[in-house]
Design a protein that fits this description.
Alpha-Beta Plaits, alpha+beta, globular, four-stranded antiparallel beta sheet, single chain, Methane Monooxygenase Hydroxylase, Chain G, domain 1, 8 strands, 3 domains
């Protein structure tokens, strides 16, 4: 993150959102790789977020010159405090590493099949990416992967900027779709990860069931946050309602998780691993709760200050809505066929077909003309997504 202190409401809100997303990514990576340095960075970002939220409160109070201004800034602070709770949940995840609780070995392979995965890759000598900046590489749109951190020797660069240049022997910490891992490994000159065995899987144990629930909770929380931001950006009550449905599902899953963790106690190697699972579940549920709170103004038809939408349009990962047009390249093809995430960098959070919403659609989901896609990803990815879906209709006037 840029060390210069922002001094206006919009920039402070952008910084809080970007920091919270980075914290969640680093926290899961810290647990997955048992990397204390990543956990320490999450704690540092948490302290910075607390200071920036205090600064935002001060700036918001100074900006309010009338009761109407005060009401608008109250909504800004509501969103900001929900974002901070996401950062707090990321800190709880990172403390699993600091407390040396660990996670069951069964969790790691399962996390590789989550909607978004974390991975690390070492850049080899003469790799295609060496000597090229992250801007030139356009990894989010070319591979679907985002670089969270770069380790050079023993030093780390967190949240690297577009001018950073990976060098030979650097280690990249990345996150994105599972299909993007081998694409970024190819650019780094690393061999592909071989496919897993095709043998019939063994019967699920109690611990396996607990881990599967936890992976679903992780996916749900990330989808809830993405849909919450989209509902605010597009002022869409239907999206806000979907966030509420996801949060309710997360509540039920947390209850199931606790039950399965207790049943798994006899087969666990260490009790602390089960404590780690419970903490991960509680943190994922807290993220879903924060996402639900974020949508309150939209859900109740209350106006939000324009600065909120301005901030969401300027963050590192933006929301986009796209309509599948008749005759477009996307019509009649599945998300898998289109390789949506790795070709455009955009992750489809939900699809509206008529009055029905399909959130977190499967890769085999086939698009039809008229489908409305709500996605998150890099700003450049929106243009590529529009190219796939066809020329977009002009926005409707308020009277329409």
């Amino acid at each position: 993150m840029d060390e210069e202190r922002p001094n206006n409401v919009k920039d402070l809100l952008v910084g809080l959102k970007d920091a919270s997303e980075l914290m969640v990514d680093l926290a899961y990576a810290a647990v997955f790789f048992n990397e204390p340095t990543l956990a320490e960075e999450v704690e540092r970002l948490d302290e910075r977020m607390t200071l920036e939220l205090r600064r935002l409160r001060t700036v918001a109070m100074l900006a309010a010159r009338s009761p109407e201004d005060a009401e608008g800034m109250a909504g800004v602070l509501w969103i900001a405090e929900a974002i901070q709770r996401i950062g707090d949940a990321a800190s709880d995840i990172a403390r699993i590493v600091a407390a040396r609780l660990g996670i069951p070995p069964a969790l790691k392979p399962d996390l590789r099949h989550a909607d978004e995965v974390t991975a690390r890759v070492r850049v080899r000598d003469d790799a295609p990416m060496t000597g090229r900046s992250l801007r030139d590489l356009s990894l989010p749109t070319e591979t679907g992967m985002w670089v969270m951190a770069i380790r050079s020797g023993t030093s780390w660069e967190f949240d690297p900027g577009p001018d950073d240049v990976p060098a030979a022997s650097d280690v990249l910490m990345v996150r994105g779709p599972e299909d993007g891992i081998n694409r970024i490994r190819e650019l780094a000159g690393a061999p592909p990860i071989p496919p897993g065995p095709e043998d019939d899987p063994p019967a699920l144990s109690e611990l396996d069931r607990a881990v599967d629930i936890l992976v679903e909770m992780k996916d749900l929380s990330e989808a809830a946050v993405g849909l919450a931001y989209a509902s605010i950006l597009f002022n869409d009550r239907a999206l806000a309602a979907e966030v509420g449905a996801l949060e309710a599902r997360s509540d039920r899953l947390e209850d199931e998780l606790e039950s399965w963790v207790l049943r798994a106690a006899p087969e666990a190697r260490h009790v602390d691993e089960l404590r780690g699972l419970i903490r991960l579940g509680a943190a994922s549920e807290a993220i879903s709760d924060a996402a639900r709170d974020m949508t309150w103004y939209v859900e109740h038809g209350e106006p939000l200050h324009p600065v909120v939408q301005m901030a969401l349009e300027e963050t590192e990962e933006t929301s986009a809505e796209t309509i599948v047009m008749p005759g477009s390249a996307a019509e009649g093809r599945s998300l898998k066929d289109l390789r949506m995430e790795t070709e455009t960098g955009m992750f489809v959070l939900g699809i509206q077909r008529g009055a029905r919403w399909i959130y977190r659609p499967r890769a085999t989901f086939e698009l039809r003309a008229g489908d409305r896609l709500v996605s998150v990803g890099p700003e450049d990815g929106e243009d590529e997504l529009i190219e796939l879906c066809g020329d977009q209709p002009p926005p409707l006037d308020d009277d329409d």
